[in-house]
Amino acid sequence: MAKDAGYTAIISHRSGETEDATIADLAVGTAAGQIKTGSMSRSDRVAKYNQLIRIEEALGSKAPFNGLKEVKGQA
Fold it and tell me: What Gene Ontology terms for biological process does this UniProt record contain (predicted)?
């Protein structure tokens, strides 16, 4: 129902995270469209972005970046 109304999910981490990058796998696996993991100012956050890059490399053209199309009213 929410997706039909133009809404999307955002997968978000908690403060005090570890370098476990499972959140990146969840964001891609659920086709959430967005992930909130903070700026790349700490190694625990960089680990999550690195996992997203690895996933993109593994999926190749099957992993499109939708940009603002994922944000309601922005595209």
Answer: glycolytic process
The mean pLDDT value for 3-12 works out to: 83
**Mind listing the pLDDT tens digit for each residue in 19-38?**
899 999 999 998 887 899 88
Give residue 51's domain range. Answer: 10-64
Number of domains in the chain: 1
| pTM, full prediction | 0.77
| Residues 24, 55 contacting (CB under 8 angstroms) | yes
Question: Does some domain include residue 22?
Answer: yes
Closest to 28 in 3D by CA, of 70, 73, 75, 68? 70
